Backbone:
């Protein structure tokens, strides 16, 4: 598939901003659409056509899609565990975005439609053990028992991609992202995921001189984290494939406990902290890792950036952002707001 023009829906978000830069560097004509005002986009690329529109609405979604070979749907209301556990209804409304974009892709004959799904589609029963070896295979999404709210929306939307491909010949491709991190992502405000949150907390402990850190859960829960450049490589491979169209894992298989993630961040920050475990905080599943057998078989590749390397770059970026924003003072972090008033914060997916 040779893309000449692309629209990135949710391109004001973390992954979308990086994807836009990447496609532009390849000489592709890029349209970026996001519901947030451009002042809140993570990256704004002046060479792209930048549009603020709410793709929950049919007309806006159709206009977004019109005229592009490839549609990337990264738009949804999302965040880390602190957000999705308390905003289930809001997360489910994103079903409108994918529905309208798929209908638009059908109407205007898009040559490719990429949908950013999530490891949150996997059956919760398979993620009960805090083990690094909790490798999830693609078939583990069924029988369906995904993450409540956010995961159900993702699973339904995956399914809709399948039926639009089978019934209406919209050439859909679906990746299941496993917790993506890197510079130009959310690091405060309530939607941040563990890698950015832990980096920020280590930075705050250093700045405040209070050498303690709050960790959600008991720190034994396991995850794998995918660096943004691997995510981009995988998006291209999956989108451009002529043969593979089923949902496929896109994640790192380097599993760690959250305690090990904290070890790494402490090491990067050059500090050791007293750990306070908050057992009442949002925790999500006990164990989750990406089984990469299929992606290796289909593409002869899997995400391979070491967590230590990616986290170091992320930590440095967050440190700079923190200093720029708060000038070395420690900010009081507030939890993410709950409810419809955060609708306008819809942002790029993943995870
Ligand atoms: N966000 C956050 N902030 N998580 C923390 C913190 C903290 O300060 N301290 C410990 N954790 C723990 C959480 O309790 C959870 O057990 C683990 O780190 C990972 O949290 P996360 O990064 O917020 O999100 P999850 O991996 O549980 O879930 C995410 O999965 C992705 C797919 O793999 C989801 O939030 C989705 O954004 C996404 O689809």
Residues:
């Amino acid at each position: 598939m040779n893309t000449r023009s692309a629209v990135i829906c949710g391109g004001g978000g973390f992954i979308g901003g990086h994807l836009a830069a990447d496609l532009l560097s390849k000489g592709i004509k890029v349209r970026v659409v996001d519901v947030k005002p451009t002042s809140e986009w993570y990256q704004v690329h002046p060479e792209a056509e930048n549009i603020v529109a709410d793709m929950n609405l049919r007309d806006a979604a159709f206009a977004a899609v019109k005229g592009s070979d490839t549609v990337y749907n990264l738009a949804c209301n999302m965040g880390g565990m602190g957000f999705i556990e308390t905003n289930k209804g809001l997360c489910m409304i994103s079903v409108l975005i994918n529905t309208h974009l798929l209908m638009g892709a059908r109407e205007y004959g898009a040559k490719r439609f990429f949908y950013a799904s999530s490891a949150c589609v996997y059956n919760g029963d398979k993620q009960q053990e805090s083990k690094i070896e909790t490798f999830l295979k693609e078939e583990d999404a069924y029988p369906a028992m995904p993450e409540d709210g956010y995961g159900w929306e993702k699973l339904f939307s995956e399914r809709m991609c399948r039926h639009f491909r089978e019934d209406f010949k919209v050439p859909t491709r679906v990746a299941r992202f496993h917790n993506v991190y890197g510079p130009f992502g959310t690091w405060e405000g309530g939607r941040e995921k563990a890698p950015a949150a832990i980096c920020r907390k280590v930075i705050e402990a250093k700045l405040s001189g209070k050498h303690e850190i709050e960790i959600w859960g008991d720190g034994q829960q396991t995850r794998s984290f995918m660096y943004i450049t691997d995510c981009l490589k995988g998006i291209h491979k999956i989108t451009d494939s002529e043969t593979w169209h089923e949902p496929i894992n896109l994640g790192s298989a380097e599993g760690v406990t959250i305690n090990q993630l904290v070890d790494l961040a402490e090491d990067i920050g050059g500090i050791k902290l007293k750990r306070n475990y908050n057992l009442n905080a949002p925790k999500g599943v006990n164990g989750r890792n990406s089984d990469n057998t299929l992606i290796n078989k289909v593409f002869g590749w899997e995400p391979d950036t070491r967590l230590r390397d990616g986290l170091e770059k992320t930590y440095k970026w967050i440190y700079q952002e923190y200093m720029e924003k708060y000038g070395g003072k420690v900010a009081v972090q507030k939890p993410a707001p709950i409810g419809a008033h955060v609708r306008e914060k819809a942002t790029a997916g993943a995870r």
In short: Residues 5-181+227-253+339-348 form a domain with the Rossmann fold fold (CATH 3.40.50.720).
